[in-house]
Amino acid sequence: MTKFVYLFHEGNSNMRELLGGKGANLAEMTNIGLPVPFGFTISTQACNAYYEAGKEISPEVKEQIEDALYELERKTGKILGDQNQPLLVSVRSGSVFSMPGMMDTVLNLGMNDQTVEAIAHLTGNARFAYDSYRRFIQMFSDVVLQIDVYHFERLLEETREQKGYTADPELTAEDWKEVIIKYKEIVKEHTKQDFPQDPKEQLFLAINAVFDSWNNQRAIIYRRLNKIPDHLGTAVNIQSMVFGNMGNDSGTGVAFTRNPSTGEKILYGEYLINAQGEDVVAGIRTPQPIQVLSKDMPKVYDQFLQISQLLEQHYQDMQDIEFTVERGKLFILQTRNGKRTAQAAIRIAVDMVNEGIIDQQTALLRVDPDQLNQLLHRRIDDSYERQQLAKGLPASPGAATGQVVFDADEAEQLGNEGKKVILVRPETTPDDIHGIIASQAIVTSRGGMTSHAAVVARGMGKACICGCEALKIDLDAKQFSVGNTIVHYGDVITIDGSTGEVMLGEIPMIDPQLSEEFQQLLSWADETRQIGVRANADNPADAKKSLEFGADGIGLCRTEHMFMDIKRIPIVQEMILAETSEERKQALDQLLPMQQGDFEGIFLEMKGHPVTIRLLDPPMHEFLPDKEDLIVDVTKLQLTEPNSAELKRKEKLLKKVQQLAEFNPMLGHRGCRLGMIYPEIYEMQVRAIFNAVAKLTEQGMTVTPEIMIPLVGHVNELKRMRELVINIANQVMGEQSMHFDYTVGTMIEIPRAALTADEIAEQADFFSFGTNDLTQTTFGYSRDDAEGKFLQAYIEQKVLPENPFAVLDQQGVGKLIQTGVSLGRQTKPSLKTGICGEHGGEKKSIEFCYQAGLNYVSCSPYRVPLARLAAAQATIKHGIVKEQMTVASK
Amino acid sequence: MTKFVYLFHEGNSNMRELLGGKGANLAEMTNIGLPVPFGFTISTQACNAYYEAGKEISPEVKEQIEDALYELERKTGKILGDQNQPLLVSVRSGSVFSMPGMMDTVLNLGMNDQTVEAIAHLTGNARFAYDSYRRFIQMFSDVVLQIDVYHFERLLEETREQKGYTADPELTAEDWKEVIIKYKEIVKEHTKQDFPQDPKEQLFLAINAVFDSWNNQRAIIYRRLNKIPDHLGTAVNIQSMVFGNMGNDSGTGVAFTRNPSTGEKILYGEYLINAQGEDVVAGIRTPQPIQVLSKDMPKVYDQFLQISQLLEQHYQDMQDIEFTVERGKLFILQTRNGKRTAQAAIRIAVDMVNEGIIDQQTALLRVDPDQLNQLLHRRIDDSYERQQLAKGLPASPGAATGQVVFDADEAEQLGNEGKKVILVRPETTPDDIHGIIASQAIVTSRGGMTSHAAVVARGMGKACICGCEALKIDLDAKQFSVGNTIVHYGDVITIDGSTGEVMLGEIPMIDPQLSEEFQQLLSWADETRQIGVRANADNPADAKKSLEFGADGIGLCRTEHMFMDIKRIPIVQEMILAETSEERKQALDQLLPMQQGDFEGIFLEMKGHPVTIRLLDPPMHEFLPDKEDLIVDVTKLQLTEPNSAELKRKEKLLKKVQQLAEFNPMLGHRGCRLGMIYPEIYEMQVRAIFNAVAKLTEQGMTVTPEIMIPLVGHVNELKRMRELVINIANQVMGEQSMHFDYTVGTMIEIPRAALTADEIAEQADFFSFGTNDLTQTTFGYSRDDAEGKFLQAYIEQKVLPENPFAVLDQQGVGKLIQTGVSLGRQTKPSLKTGICGEHGGEKKSIEFCYQAGLNYVSCSPYRVPLARLAAAQATIKHGIVKEQMTVASK
C-alpha cells in the first residue's frame, strides 16, 4: 500500500520531492528535536493521484489523512471541532520548488460558531477570536469557495464607514460578530449554502482546494516561466496552530543567529509578549530586542539560544528563525537561511570557516558576487528613504553629492576651488574631459550605456547616469527642470549611479569597506580559481587600482582615451584633418612621445604583470567637434558674418566632419579598418609601445606587451596588421640593439571572426572576446539606441530574460564564443583566450566563460574582487574544465 | 624506363596532367587528323625530375629529347641548324592549369648567323629574317640568359632616333643587321660569352629556362593566389615554326566557327595573305574577311571549312581557330572555345541542341548567367569609346540619357512635358519619390548601395549611381562640377548604372533583347532546376514584371515603399508624430484602405502565385524630414523670425526628429522591434493584407499570403508577432464569415536568429534569409559606410576576395545560413526556406543556396532570368540535394 501521508517525524530534508520544500523542512526540524507544532504532510504523490482520479481524493488517501489527524489530536490534546480544547490547523501548499504566492493557504481551520467561543475563552480575547474567525471565513471563501474577496472587503469598508472607524483595529469583538453574520450571508448568497460548520468538511474542502491551486492560471504561468515541470504536483501541510497571544506567558518573535547587517556573532532579533505575528507586522506595539526575552522568560530564552545554535550547526549557515511561545512553551515555526548584507555575508562566511563549521569552498559559495559591488563604491545609506526626482540609465555605479554645473570649464573652476560638483550635460564630448575629471559625477540627458560619458566615467570609477530624458536642460538659463521642479546652477543634488536615480539635496552616504574578512575571502578565491581575472585599465592610476584590487594583469588597455586628453585633442584633430599622408605623419610624430609616456607609466605600475594593449578603435569623427553644433554655427555665421574668416574655417571643418560622418558608426570605419587604410596611425602606436618596452627593458624590467588588433572580421586583416607590428618591433629592436618579447592577438567581436576562428587563429597568439560589440552585432542591437528605445520594454515584458549587455546571452553570443574557442584551439591548441567586455565582471557570464574554457576574464578594476570570487565559485561548481589551464596561463 | 617525351601523336586531351594543357590540346588536334605543325612535349614529370636532380636534365631525358627531335626533323624535312632547310622551333611552357603570362616562351629557336641567311633566302624576305633573328636574340636573352630587355629596347630606341625613324617597321634588313651586331655585344657584355650559335645548345638552354620559370617569383605568387599546387610542374612544348609570309601562296588568319556577336551559324573571321600573325596585330595591312580566302585559295578554304566543322563537332562548342598557310599548306596552330556575347552564347547553345551537337543540360551550362544582365537592361553600345566624367557606385544597372535636373519637382514638371531627365541630388528622401518616378535615372553624390535612391531605383528597374563623390553639387546655382567641368541644369548627360560611370552628352544605346532562343533556354532551365526563383516586388507593376520574367512568386514584398508614396507621407508623418496611441490609430485608419488597395493590386497581378509580405521594417525617422535640414531652418528662423509660428512648428518637428534619431539606425528601433512597441502599426498592415485576401476570396480567387516578420532575434519576438497576426486573421475571418489560409514566417537576418533557429522554427512556417542585413551584421559592416570608406580598398588589395554584398560570403554568412537551415529543419522538417537578399540574383550565391538546401531564391525582377539559369546550373552541377524538394515546394 502506498504511503501518502507522513507525520512530520516520519520525513526528513531529503524527501523534498515527495513532501515538498516546506514539508521536508518541518520534518527535518521535528527530527532534530525542535519543538515544532505537530502536523503531517500529504505527499505530492497524493496530489497526482487526485488528478488521475479526476480530481477526487481516494478512500485510501482519505483514510490515511484521518489516521494522521487522529495522531495530531492525540499529540496536541486538542480535537478538531471540540468545544473545550478545539484544534485549529493551518493548511498550506508546498511544492518541490518554491513558488511564492502562487498557491493557496488556509489558516485557523477548525473555527466555527462553537469553537470561536472556546478560543475566546481560552485566549481571554474575544476580539482576537472573532477577528480570527472572520479572517478564516474570508480566506476559506476565497481559496475554497471561490468567492471574490472584493465582496468581503466592500462590506468591511461599509462597516467602517458606518461606525466612523478609520482602520480595522478599531473594530471591537461585537463589531466583528456583526461582520461575521454578514460574511456568512455573502457566502450563502454565492454558494446557496451555509458556510460549512463541520471542521472535517472544512479540512477536506481545503485539501481539495490546495490540490486544485496547483493548476490555477498563475501557478501554470509561473511554472512555465520558471521551467518547473507540471507533473511534480504539490504537497499539503496540515499543522496545528499555536498562539502567542494567550497571555503574558506567551509571545512571538523573529531572530537571526548572527547580526544580518554586520555579521557579528550575536543573536539578533525582536519579540513581542502576548502577541501574534500579525501584531508585529501591524506596528502598533514596539517589539523588544530578543535579549529582553532573557529577563521576561529566562528558561524559554535559554532554550531558544540553544535551539538557534543547534539550527546554525545543523544547517551550517546563519538562520532566520520564527518562534512563538504559547503559555510558556516554545514553538519553532520556521527556520531558513537568513538574508544578510554583503558585509555580513563575508564576515559570517569567514568566521564560520574559522569556527570550523564550514570549509573554505563553502564559504566562497556563500557570498553572492553581485552584492560585493556595493562595498566597492560610495553608496547611499540604505536606511535613508529616497525621494527620486528623475531616473536615467545606471551608467556607472556609485553615489555622489555635489553642486550642479552645466559646463566643463565651470566644473574645472569650481573643482579647483575644492568644491564638489556634478556635471549635467545633454551629452559629453572629448572636449569635456577636464570637466569630467573635476566632477564627482556626470549626468547626461541623452546617450546610452556606451556613450562617451558612460565609458569615460566607468573607466575613472566615477558615478554616472546617462539618457536621463526627464531632465529638460536649458544651458543658456543654466538650469534644468523635471516637471515643475527647477534645479539651478549651484543647487546641490545627489545621484546614485547604481540605480540611475537623481535626488535633490545632500543624502547620507556610506564609504566603501574593504574589511580584513573580505581580503581573507578573496585570497581563498585566488587559491581556488582556475581562470584568470584581469582589469580593463587605460592609465597608470587605473593600472595601480587594478593591482590593488587583485587583478592578474590588464586584459584591455584602450588607447583611444589617451587621444582624448584635452592637450592632445588639437594634435589628434590635426592628424585627422591632414590632407596628405605626410601631414598626418607630422601630427603623429607629435603624438608618439605622448603615447610612449602613457605606456611607460602603465608598464611601470603593472610591475611586469601582463598588459594587453588594444590599438585605436573608434571612428575618427569621434575626435572632431559635433556635426550639428557646426551646422548651427555655420548657418548663423552665414547670416551674420558672411565674409568672415571664421565662417570659412568652420565651413571647411564642417565639410571634413560631414565627409567622415557615418550612417552607422558602430559598423563603420573603425577598429583595424583604420589601421588598414591609415597604417601610419597604428605604426605610431606600436612604435610608442615598443619604445616604452625598450626603455624599461634597459632599466632592467621585463615587459612583454600583448598587442591586440580590434574588430578583425577576416584573417587577412589580422595578417596584414600582424606584419605591421612585427616590422615595427624589428625596427625598434634594431635601433636599440636589444631583444624583447611580445605577442600579437585579436579581439573577437564580430560574428564572422568567431565563425572563421580557425583561420584567424593562424595569425593570432591570443583571442580576446569583445562581448560588448559581439552582443551588438549578434543581436543586431545598437546599444546606444536599444537601451533608450525598446530594450527596457523587452526586459520588462520578458521578451528577453535579461539585458544581454549586462548578462551574457549564452544561447546566441555564447554559442559564438564556444565556436570561436573550439575552432581557434583546433588550429592552435595553445591559443590563449579571454573576454574583455563588461560581461567579464558579471557572475553568470564568468561562470559561462570558465565552462567555455577561457583562460581569463577582464573587467573594470572596481569589479575585479567580484570577478575573483565569481571565478572561484565557477571552479568549485564545475571542477577543472581544461587540464591545460594552470595558474601560469592566467 | 619512364617515358618523358611524347610526340604530339602519342598524346591526347586526357593527358593534361602529364603533358600540360597546351601539350594535350596539340596532341588531341594532331590525333583527330588536323594539320598541326609537328612537335613533341617534354612531360611535367621531366620537370619534377629536373628539380629532383638539382636543376639538371638527366641523360635519360636528354636522350629522349634528341630522339624526338630526330623524328621532328624527319617529318618536317628540316634540320636544326641546317644551312639550306633550317628547322626553327618554338619552345613553350604548358602546365595543367592555365597560368597566362606567368611562364616563359622562346620563338624562332634555331636562328643563328648562318640559318638567318637561309631563312632570308627561303622567304625571299631578308628584312623579315633579320627582324626574326633579332627578336630571337632579345627573347632568348631575356628568358634564358636573364638579361634585362631594357638594354635591348634602349638600343633600339637610340637606333630609331639616329635614323630618324618613328616606328620599327621603318627599319630595313640592313638596319636590323646593325642592330643584331649591337645586340650580340650586349649579350657578350652581360654574359662574358658570345651569343650561343649552336641551335642544340640553344634548345637545351631554353628547356632549362622553361623548367626554371616554373619557380620564378610571379609564377609562385600566381599559384599561391590561385591555389595551384607547387608539385605539378610544367611541361615543355617544342614545335616546328611555320611561316605565313613565304609568298602569295602563304597567309595567316583567325576564324570563329560561328558569329561571336550574334551566334549566327556562319564562319566568321579574317586573314591576311603573305603575312604572319604579328602583321595582323600591327594593323598596317587591313585583313580580308575569311570568305575571301575561298577566292584566293579555294582548296585551302574548303579544307579549313571542313576542319572548322570537325573541330566544332569534336569540341562540341564554337571554336576560335588560329591558322597559317605556308606555301599552300594549311596548318592549324591553335583552337579554343571562342569568346562570345551573351546574345551569341544563347543562340549558339540553343542552335547546338537543335543540331543535335549537345544536350539541353550542356546548353544550360554554356551560358554564363552574369552575361544575361546586359540583355535585360538598356545599355551603352559596346563599340562606343567612353569618356568618363566621374565614377560612383553602380547602384542600379542599366544606362540612361537625359537632361540634368536638381530637384524632384522640376523632374516631375519636365517629365510630364515628355522630356527625359536625370535627377542629380546629394541624396534622395521619400519626398523625392515623384521626381524619381519622372526621371530616367538617379545620380547622388552621397550614400551607398542601400541608400534610399539605390533601393528605390533598383525596385523600379531604373538606372542609378550613388555615392558619386566627385560631383560637387551646387543646388542654389543649379549646377554640378567635376574638376573644371561644370554641368548646368538642362545639360544632357548619359550614365551607366552597371559601371557607375557618368558621361557628358548623349551616347548610343542598345535596347534590351529577349530573343526566342533566350525564352527557349529559360524554359529548359525551368524544367531542370530544383530550386524556386521568386522576385522581390513591392507594387503591381513590379509584380507583373516578375511574372513576365518567369518568377514563381514574390519572395519579398516590402511594405515600406507603400508608405513612401508622396500622397501618403503626410499621413505617415502624422502617425509617427502622434503623442498618444489613439492619435496614432486615427492616422493608421487612414492608411488602412490605401495599404489594402496595394495588396489587392499585387495579389491580382500574381494570379494565385505565392506572395511573401514583409511587415514594416525601417526605423520611423526615415519617414520624417532630414534632421540637418531642420537644424539649418530652425537656426535661420531663430535669427530672422524669432516669433513666427513657422519657427514653433519646426522646432517641435525638430524635437521629435531628434527624439527618434539614432546613433546606428541599422541596429536600432526597426523591424519587428517596431511591431513589438507599436503593435497598432503591424495590426493595421496585417488587417490590410487579410481584408485584401477576403475581398479577392469573395471574387473566387485563392490567395494564401505568407506574412513575414522582419529582424527577429529571439523566438519570443516571433511568438508575440505571430499571435498578433493570428488574432487579426481570426477577427477578419469572423467579420467576413469566411475562411482563408495564410502562413507566418520570419526573416533570418540577425546572427542570433540563425544561431537559435531551432527555437525560432517553433513559431515559423518559413524562414527567409535576409542576406543583406545578415552580411552587415556578420561582418559588422554598415554597407552605406563601408562601400564609400574602406570596402573598395579591401577588395582591390585582396583583403577580401569579393564584395560580400554582391557575392555571398560562404565561410562566414554562409555558415550561419547552413546553421539556420539545419537547426530549423531539426525542429520542423517541413520548414520552407529561402533567401531574399540581393545575393538571390547572383550565380555563385544561388549555387550555394541550392547546396544549403534552400527551397527558393528571391531577387529583383530584372535578375529573375539570370537566377532561373543559375538555379538550373546549380542543379546540374550538384544533382538533387534534398529529396523533399519537389517543384511544388518552390
Features of this protein?
homodimer, alpha/beta, Dna Ligase, domain 1, D-amino Acid Aminotransferase, Chain A, domain 1, Glucose Oxidase, domain 1, 5 domains, 8-stranded mixed β-sheet, 36 helices, 16% strand
CATH homologous superfamily heading of the largest domain in chain A: Phosphoenolpyruvate-binding domains
Counting DSSP H or I runs of 4 or more residues, the number of helices of chain A is 36
Radius of gyration of chain A, CA atoms, in whole angstroms: 34 Å
Q: Quaternary arrangement of the chains shown?
A: homodimer
Into which percentage range does the β-strand content of chain A fall?
15-25%
Shape of chain A: elongated
| Total of domains of chain A | 5
N→C terminal distance of chain A: 59 Å
Instruction: Classify the secondary structure makeup of chain A into a structural class.
Output: alpha/beta
Give a count of the beta strands of chain A, DSSP E runs of length 2 or more: 31
Mean pLDDT of chain A: 91
Domain Pyruvate phosphate dikinase AMP/ATP-binding (chains A, B): 57-298, 306-352
Keywords (chains A, B): ATP-binding, Kinase, Magnesium, Metal-binding, Nucleotide-binding, Pyruvate, Transferase
GO molecular function (chains A, B): ATP binding; kinase activity; metal ion binding; pyruvate, phosphate dikinase activity
Binding site for substrate (chains A, B): 558, 614, 749, 770-773
